[in-house]
Design brief:
heterodimer; A: alpha/beta; Rossmann fold; 2 domains; four-stranded parallel sheet; globular; B: alpha/beta; Nucleotidyltransferase, domain 5; five-stranded mixed sheet; 7 helices
């Protein structure tokens, strides 16, 4: 029997095979893109406007995803070091340094060459570093830069005046696209793309909801990262919409066959934070050896809080895009974020929360120390805080991280009044 | 009578404790080198020699500390966090918070009434505030770390020393020496610096009596006094405080033996 948690290394499932093929095709298409035939837009994942941009014929590059792809293939450090040699400091975000180093080194990645941008869309303005990143790219390439100013979410739902404010900017953006491409805005095409997005989003929510089952047939953090590619990169395409049908079928088959991410589910976790991509498999193994499975996680929501009802709607195209953009996970106030995490812990019957903070990103990480304390002291949920980085391998200290994790899982085990010490060599 | 051993392979020393009938009957402490398996074996051999027992009498060996996986002749492994909690509870049953300052890390551990870990916080990727910090700064003052414990007791005007970096702290100590500051005042400043860092970890888990201080640095009288003063609470320190991790490991092994039918 194979287990979903092992499939990454030991034999891909059909969904993983399909995901790999989609990644390869995407990067192959990018290698041919650029210039007037198929212009390229760079965009950020959070609150992105991919359907609008694609409806004007652009191919879309997400430098954050390119960066994490470099990191998981252990190729981020040369780019980071190159950026540091250019003068970017140690404290600058690893995504930023990977991309700027990569651009200077000719755009080469483990998956192929990334074309330079014809348009820069800063769709997440909640991070000041990101705005500066896009400005640096605009200066380098001399292409148009559009910054979407997204109001920070303090309430459960966006206010009407906030939606109007974002929609007004979307209309300005569409006017810019019409000017730069010479094409008229095709509302019908946008609606068709949004219908694909909606189908993909509903499929993604179904997949993530499967973590409610006991045992969980999915790994909502480590495995979900692979299945995030279509929803984040290919949203608005039929390929992304259909991909989640394959995932659905696979999860159903797992349940039927009794195949689970860990052979014996011992600990159910909610995981918060960005993964340490340079040490992804090592980190995952630290969980697996304790029979720990992520049943819910916040990171798979960075591309959209679809499970909270922020789905694209072909009948309300610009309004639903505005709502979606505001509901980007890192655009949520800490009050909303921590309530969401506590609700996941309750609804998914988790035993504990693991928080992985990253040195690079204050938007994601600042506040996680308070979150830890709140979960432990106010909610009574055992919580572990770990820290490294999502891009820079120099910040991942395996012995220290493993020691903390072992101690945490030992204490969870002890608190259940069982004695289950790992044998030597385990 | 069941004899069990705990072997704690830390960053600077290997400790072994032998427990029989609820008593520590043997112990050893020796520096670690690069051959941790041999260091672990030596620790057990020395503790057996100390107790007058034979290797064949030992029913279980449990490894702990960063080098716990090098206790290859043992049956079980447990992290030092769990072991310090258990060992502290064994020595002081009313312990609710453990502060362990070892060679290269500092841990604040909150425990329940049974000595089970509820929460913990550790220093992160930096040796400031650890035994190594004290070692380096003692060297800058011209002392061996084993000599400096009581020296600060006569301090009158403790200096201020950074608590963020061992290397910078060493430079600061050298600078104070050059300026003719009294070594007692410099040492008191160092202890204050380490205790400040420890307090922030203790506050992360929440301070409540009783507090038990473990690890090599707990052998330093000046540190103990400074910690008591800054906490405003009594602090338990056992003569066996350097062996608390090894004691906890031995007790875990005993528990495991009792849980599994022979």
């Amino acid at each position: 029997m194979t287990h979903p948690g092992e499939e990454v290394e030991d034999g891909p499932t059909s969904a993983r095979e399909q995901q790999r093929r989609l990644v390869e095709e995407y990067y192959a298409d990018l290698a041919d893109a650029g210039g007037p035939r198929k212009p390229v837009a760079y965009m950020l994942v959070g609150g992105n406007l991919t359907e609008i941009v694609r409806s004007f014929g652009y191919e879309v590059v997400f430098p954050e995803i390119v960066a994490l792809n470099c990191a998981i293939k252990h190729e981020s450090l040369p780019n980071i070091l190159h950026a540091e040699a250019q003068g970017y400091g140690l404290d600058v975000c690893g995504y930023v340094k990977n991309d700027l180093g990569l651009q200077e080194l000719g755009g080469k990645t483990p998956f192929g060459r990334i074309p330079p941008p014809d348009l820069l869309v800063c769709s997440f303005s909640g991070c000041y570093v990101y705005i500066k990143w896009w400005e640096a790219l605009a200066e380098k390439y001399g292409c148009p830069l559009f910054v979407l100013d997204v109001p920070y979410m303090r309430d459960e739902r966006p206010r009407s005046e906030e939606i109007e404010y974002v929609v007004a900017q979307l209309n300005e953006f569409i006017a810019l696209l019409e000017r730069t491409t010479g094409r008229s805005f095709d509302r019908g095409e946008l609606r068709r793309m949004l219908a694909h997005s909606r189908k993909a989003e509903e499929g993604w929510v179904r997949y993530l909801s499967a973590g409610r089952r006991r045992p969980s047939p999915i790994e909502a953090y480590f495995e979900a990262v692979f299945y995030m590619f279509p929803i984040n990169v290919l949203r608005g395409t039929a390929a992304a919409a259909d991909f989640y049908d394959t995932v659905d079928a696979e999860v159903t088959a797992r349940v039927r066959a009794g195949e689970y991410p860990v052979p014996e589910e011992k600990v159910r976790l909610v995981v918060e934070g960005v993964p340490p991509y340079p040490s992804y498999r090592t980190f995952w193994d630290f969980f697996r050896r304790w029979g720990a499975v992520s049943v819910a996680a916040t990171y798979p929501k960075v591309g959209g809080l679809f499970d909270q009802g922020f789905l694209h709607d072909p009948d309300r195209p610009l309004e639903s895009i505005a709502e979606y953009s505001m509901a980007a996970y890192v655009n949520q106030s800490w009050g909303l974020r921590r309530r969401l995490i506590a609700s996941y812990a309750k609804e998914f019957e988790a035993d504990a929360v693991v928080i992985h903070g990253i040195k690079s990103c204050r938007s994601f990480t600042a506040g996680q120390g308070d979150l830890r304390d709140w979960l432990i002291h106010e909610q009574g949920i055992p919580t572990l805080y770990l820290e490294s980085d999502h891009e820079d391998p120099r910040y991942f200290a395996p012995a220290q991280i493993k020691n903390r994790m072992d101690a945490f899982f030992e204490s969870l085990d002890r608190r259940r009044s069982t004695v289950s010490l790992p044998m030597v060599g385990a | 009578m069941t004899l069990v051993a705990g072997v704690d392979i830390g960053s600077t020393t290997a400790k072994c404790a032998l427990i029989e009938d609820g008593k520590v009957v043997g112990r050893s402490l020796n520096p670690v080198g690069v051959e941790l398996v041999k260091d672990a074996e030596r620790a057990l051999a020395l503790a057996l020699s100390d107790s007058g027992r034979e290797r064949r009498d030992v029913r279980a060996v449990t490894g702990t500390g960063y080098g716990r996986f090098k206790v290859t002749f043992g049956q079980f492994t447990v992290t030092e966090i769990g072991c310090h909690a258990k060992g502290a509870h064994f020595l002081f049953p009313a312990t609710r918070v453990v502060l362990d300052i070892g060679g290269q890390d500092t841990k604040a551990i909150k425990v329940d009434a049974n000595g089970v870990v509820i929460d913990f916080a550790m220093n992160d990727k930096c040796a400031a505030g650890t035994g190594r910090f004290l070692d380096v700064c003692a060297g800058a003052l011209g002392y061996d770390v084993s000599e400096i414990g009581p020296l600060s007791l006569g301090a009158r005007r403790p200096v201020k020393v950074t608590n963020t970096c061992t290397v910078f702290a060493e430079s600061e100590v050298s600078s104070y020496v050059a300026r003719g500051k009294d070594p007692k005042d410099i040492l008191a400043g160092l202890y204050g610096s380490i205790v400040s860092r420890s307090l922030s970890l203790l506050q992360r888990v929440g301070v409540e009596p009783e507090v038990t201080f473990t690890g090599g640095v707990s052998r330093n009288e000046g540190m103990v006094r400074t910690l008591r003063a800054r906490l405003g609470l009594p602090v338990n320190v056992s003569p066996l405080s350097q062996f608390v991790g090894a004691i906890g490991a031995a007790l875990y092994g005993l528990e495991r033996l009792e849980a599994v039918p022979a």
